[in-house]
């Protein structure tokens, strides 16, 4: 997803925790997670995304696809996949 309201995790956090964003479409997001059984990590990320969506909704120019209930999905992944995805995202940013 491109635009002003893209939810992003710090790369250092992503590498340390083993999690990164695969895809976002407004209030729907998919994360790649190394330890998909880590309930605390999933709760923290879900809370962060939910709070972020609440912030976006409070903006005057909030896009319509953010005005829905947030949906957070987690997909099992491996450290190598996370590093590759972060590298790809880094290339796209630059």
Give a quick summary of the entry.
With 94 residues, this protein is an alpha+beta fold. It contains 3 helices and 3 strands, in the order αββαβα. It is globular and about 40 Å long.
Question: What this model shows, in words?
Answer:
- A hairpin with a 2-residue loop joins strand 1 (19-25) and strand 2.
- The protein has a 3-stranded mixed sheet with strand order 1-2-3, sandwiched between helices.
- It has 94 residues and is of the alpha+beta class.
- The chain has helices spanning 11-17, 39-57, 79-93; strands spanning 19-25, 28-33, 71-76.
- The protein is globular and about 40 Å long.
What attributes characterize this protein structure?
94 residues; alpha+beta; 3-stranded mixed sheet; 3 helices; globular
Number of helices: 3
Radius of gyration: 13 Å
Binned, the helix content reads: 40-55%
Distance between the termini: 16 Å
Quote the average pLDDT.
93
Task: Please report the total strand number as a whole number.
Answer: 3
Class by SSE composition = alpha+beta
Quaternary state reads single chain
What sort of overall outline do the alpha carbons produce when their principal axes are compared?
globular
Order of helices and strands: HEEHEH
Largest sheet: 3 strands, mixed
Main sheet: strand order? 1-2-3
Low-pLDDT residue spans: none
Portion of residues in beta strands equals 15-25%
């Amino acid at each position: 997803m491109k635009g002003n309201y893209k939810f992003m995790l710090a790369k250092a956090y992503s590498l340390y925790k083993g999690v990164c964003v695969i895809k976002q479409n407004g209030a729907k997001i998919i994360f790649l997670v190394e330890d998909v059984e880590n309930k605390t990590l999933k709760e923290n990320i879900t809370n962060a995304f939910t709070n972020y969506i609440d912030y976006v909704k409070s903006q005057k120019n909030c896009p319509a696809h953010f005005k829905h209930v947030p949906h957070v999905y987690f997909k099992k992944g491996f450290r190598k996949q996370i590093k590759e995805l972060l590298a790809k995202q880094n290339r796209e940013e630059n």
